[in-house]
Amino acid sequence: MRLWINKRPGATHVFKRPDDSSKAAYRRLRDAFKDAVDRSGIGRPVTPQDCRRTVASLLAARGVNQKVAAEFLGHSDITTTSKYYQAVQEDTLRGVVVSLRPTGTEGKPIS
Hints:
- The termini are far apart.
- Helices cover about 55% and strands about 0% of the residues.
- The longest helix has 19 residues, at about 20-40.
- It has helices spanning about 20-40, 50-60, 65-75, 80-85, 90-100.
């Protein structure tokens, strides 16, 4: 299946053929993505939304400012980014705990 990339200035859909409805373009993209996931052998369902969340989490893990992440993800409101996409990683929480310890206690395990 071939996906078309709409390069017209002002186009509102990336993958849309000139004769497509928005629903047809969405279905074609959804089906192509599902086929790619099935072929990958991941072994579980993955959606394009999962990919967006992963990108947002990677941006957060690299210390990218939330406002920049919101712009990158195309969110008009930063609360969308912070509420749904910026998951706090366990390693980040451990780092906060370690930074709050008194000097000389870095080697003790975190409970």
